[in-house]
Amino acid sequence: SVLIVDFGSQVTQLIARRVREAGVYCEIVPFQSAEEGFKRLQPRAVILSGSPASTVDEGSPRAPQIIFDSGLPVFGICYGQQTMCMQLGGKVESGHHREFGRAFLDVDKDCPLFEGLWSKGSRHQVWMSHGDRVTALPDGFEVVATSSNAPYAFIADEKRNYYGVQFHPEVVHTPDGAKLIGNFIHNIAGIKGDWSMSAYRQKAVEQIRQQVGDKRVICALSGGVDSSVAALLIHEAVGDQLTCILVDHGLMRKDEAASVVAMFREHYNLHLLHVDASDRFIGELEGVSDPETKRKIIGRLFIETFEEEAKKLGGADFLGQGTLYPDVIESVSFTGGPSVTIKSHHNVGGLPERMNMQLVEPLRELFKDEVRALGKELGLRDSFIGRHPFPGPGLAIRCPGGITREKLDILREADAIYLDEIHKAGLYDAIWQAFAVLLPVQTVGVMGDGRTYEFVCALRAVTSVDGMTADFYHYDMEFLGRAATRIINEVRGINRVVYDVTSKPPGTIEWE
Ligand code: XMP
Fold it and tell me: Per residue, what are the HEC states of 103-114?
């Protein structure tokens, strides 16, 4: 495996992505606990990340000495290169030549990291983002490539297998970056690329069996990819010791709950309890308009309902969850202080303590696309694996203003037509998330010879990589016209349709 020491760069997770893509297992550890991480993981190579900090500042973070004492190959990226140089006897200066964005690298020497990739005299695009730079190399190092503003852009100590780069090989704007990282792992560190989803599946199944023994597990199944894959994996490991509970809050999409239930029961023969709690949820939500209040009510009712059902089943020792790696990585913070809550996401947090259960989280080591690959491996249908994300609070947060049953029904119909049109146009996979929103605004229209006074429906579609930032999707007008006409013709209660052209930031993806 590979240990990635995180000094707080925005893109540290991308380093892990590139290492995994090279078929090698890796973990990210914050620099503060890098020594423990190193001892625990016993890696065969180390990568040092970038950082918003400056190595010349007093008290700025360092890599633990154990890494350099171990004799293992080390690859330092940006700040990682600078701290490695300082720790090994070189010099770094705060830069007057700041470099941001695209730069070109001239290869001055052959280097084992360039094998099959770059040769002496060639020039390559890389992505720079740094203020400081190395100004004197430690003994044993030499420069193998330079850029106009970074004379030490790429340095190597071939004897000790130490490599350092000023640029960011982990980002896509460095087109050969993934291959450089692959060369470091395969050729320099000699690690085989045999981390695959089928190997992961076997290992995870073993681990779940060991952890659970002959005890019982319960899972909350929402029909989302993460909870579905986690449930299938646990089911494969312990079969009927697993019971899944689908808390149907009546805020799902049209036919959604029924299709999830059918698939898991029939196709996978999984113990699945479908709890129709829609009256309870909608009863409490009736008339509530404040977004955070809606979210809190839904979160609380979800936990209460789940807990009651679990008790009826006689309880369980374990709670299965589809927690992913990005939720597990401790983030390195230099700003201190808590960040502002934009929205309170709802999950089953707090339940394990309340019910005295231990967690089974078989996806803790995986990124989202790895979970999808694992789902494929477990036979989940493509239509399921490629599904757009759907928020826990469901349609309640797509119905701004006071909630009523009638409004939810109108929204559910409009949303189904919109998605149907997206599927028909073959656009579903090009869009990251699409949905309809029912506005609490009535406008005047004319249909046939009559006046109408009905609700406005807003359509939303975004492209995104991780939901953290997003762009609105650029439909052609024909498509929007078609979807709008159908919605107005087929859904009673809507007489006007608008399209949301807000990106994130400044908007969020959901309206509440
Ligand atoms: P926002 O609206 O914050 O949404 O830009 C980013 C992504 O998160 C989803 N989302 C949620 N998912 N529970 C969830 O499981 C929630 O409470 C929740 N709120 C938003 C949203 O659909 C989008 O994919």
Answer: EEEEECCCCHHH
